Amino acid sequence: MSFRQKQALQYANENGRDGCEEETIRRRNYEDCSDTDPSASFNQNSSASEQDEDVMNDLRYGFAQIQSEVSELRKMVESCLEWQKKLECSIEQEFSSAVNQLVERGKSSLATKWKTTCSICCEDQVDTVLYRCGHMCACFKCSQALQWSSGNCPICYSTIVDVVRVYPNI
What we know:
170 residues; Herpes Virus-1; 2 domains; 68% helix; rod-shaped; Putative E3 ubiquitin-protein ligase LUL3; metal-binding; Znf_RING/FYVE/PHD; Znf_RING
C-alpha cells in the first residue's frame, strides 16, 4: 500500500467513514493491479491522486475557515478593548466631575459656615475660634461668656483655654 493510500485511509478513519471496507477494497484493487498491466496501475494511481486532492482541498477549506474565524475573533477583541477604553475614560470623567463638585461644595460650605450666626445667641456673626479645640461656633461676646462660665466648648466639651478673634478674608 502506498503512502498516499495510507494517508487517505487515515483521513477516512478520522472522518468517521468505514475504514475496514475501504481498506479491503483498496487491497483488492492493489492486488488486482499487481497482476494486470501498468495502465491499470496508472488508473488506480490517478484515482488515488484524486482522493489526495480531495483531502487537500478539504484541509485547505478547513484552514481557510479557521483563519476567518480567528480574524473575526481578533476584530471582536479589538472592539471590546476599544469599548473598555471608552468606558474607563467615561468613568474617569465622572469621577473627576464628582470630586470637583465635592470640592466646590466643601468650599461653599466653609464659606456658608463662616457666614453663619452664633450658635449661642443666634444674632451676631461667628467671629472667634475657641483655643485648644479650634471650633468656630460663637460670636466674640458669647465665646468670652462661655470661657468664664462653663469653660467648655459647646460642641466637643473640651476646656476653653483662650478665645481668639478671627476676621474673614472676604
